[in-house]
Amino acid sequence: MNATPVDPASGVVYPVGLRLLGRRVVVVGGGQVAHRRVAGLLEARARVTVVSPSVTPALEALVEPGSLTWVPRRYQHGDLDGAWYAVAATDDPAVNAAVAAEAEAARIFCARADDRSASSVWTPAVGRQGDLVVGVHGGGDPQRAVGVRDAVVAGLTDGSIADRAGRTGAVGGPGSVVLVGGGPGDPGLITVRGQQVVSQADVVLADHLAPQSLLASLPADVEVIDASKLPRGRSMAQEQINELLISHARAGRRVVRLKGGDPFVFGRGMEELEACVAAGIPVEVVPGVTSAIGVPGLAGIPVTHRGLTHEFVVVSGHVPPGHPQSLVDWPSLGRLRGTLVVLMGVDTAPAIAAALIGHGRAPGTPVAVVTDGSTPTQRVVRTTLDGLAKTMADEGIRPPAVWVVGEVVGLAAGAGHVPAGTSDDAEDED
């Protein structure tokens, strides 16, 4: 909608929330404005019909699975029959006026995308956080509404606007557990949903590789528990972590398990989920950016590249080849032509490199080692597979580190980006 001022004599807007589940809504027009309106209507689970000779590719993709009905022609009088709500979003003011006139005669509320003053309803700037919906009307200025909406949603996300009711579990009832992947360490790389649940937590069990600055912003009444697993050092037993998740949730608290990377990439997330389910605790999983992809990407290294590699494999290097606990098929990986990404593989790097070469990987294959990925101290060291052991020793490489084997390493010259945070999915050894 445009920002043309609306005569105050027309009355102030009366905000309501339309419950459109299963109700027919007609959108006339198939361009970008219609696309945005349809997205919100589908989220409300309305039965959407789009009337337009052509539609955007994204709208067309929704037709075959039945998400919406497309009538591929120009608008005709009668198209609004049976509708509860209508949107006039063509680039032809005459068509939009005709749609609005039919809607007015049928007592159907209609939003005209080209003329706010001629609309019987104004679409607010909408933001969502879980089941909380924020809608803002800007008094005729959509950009003003968007700015206020974004500020409110950002405050709810980072906790500066307290949603205390949203944080409180049912009185006398069980709380819940959310397993959150914090990404490679930079707090800006956690997902929006991840940041939301952290800001609403009563208890946070955090790894040392999780975004630590998020913990500093939590209210004083939020209990933060150090559940770190240091490489070859001090660590909280997994059984104790599981018990803490369950006991706090049973006490009616909202518990967040904040982990580095993604909970299901060498993060024991499934063990924690199974423990919660067995105890009857509601549990949610929030995926995170895994360091296996994110850290090489931040160093300018793609794990795949068209015409160069069609495959990549992520390996835990916490035990070396030949170790009785190793589940890795090293002979197959030695024959691999694509990209190999190794996590938790600093101490075992010499043995892994030797195994890969012994099983067919070329000794001169490029290797990049990225330490402290996504932090201000991120460092990238380049070598070859046969030079990896010496490079690791000479450069004093220590965890957290991710190393990449393959021709994609050569694509990264002069590339890379360093945000702020910490790194790696690994929460066990290395």
Quickly list its features.
single chain; 430 residues; alpha/beta; Rossmann fold; Cobalt-precorrin-4 Transmethylase, domain 1; 4 domains; 5-stranded parallel sheet; 13 helices; disordered C terminus
How much β-strand is present in the residues? 15-25%
Taking all residues together, what is the mean pLDDT? Answer: 88
**What helical percentage do the residues reach?**
25-40%
Question: CATH superfamily membership of the largest domain, which one?
Answer: Tetrapyrrole methylase, N-terminal domain
The CATH architecture of the largest domain: 3-Layer(aba) Sandwich
| CATH fold-type name of the largest domain | Cobalt-precorrin-4 Transmethylase, domain 1
Q: Give, in order, the helices and strands.
A: EHEHEEHEEEHHEHEHEHEHEHEHEHEEHE
Shape: globular
Low-confidence stretches: 415-430
Give the strand tally. Answer: 17
Give the structural class: alpha/beta
Number of domains: 4
Name of the CATH class of the largest domain: Alpha Beta
Please explain how this structure is put together.
The protein is α/β, with parallel strands linked by helices and 430 residues long. It is globular, with a radius of gyration of 27 Å. The protein has helices at 32-43, 57-60, 93-105, 142-158, 164-167, 192-199, 212-216, 238-250, 269-278, 291-298, 330-334, 349-358, 388-395, and strands at residues 24-28, 47-51, 68-71, 85-88, 109-112, 125-129, 132-136, 176-181, 203-206, 223-226, 254-259, 283-286, 312-316, 339-343, 366-371, 379-384, 401-405.
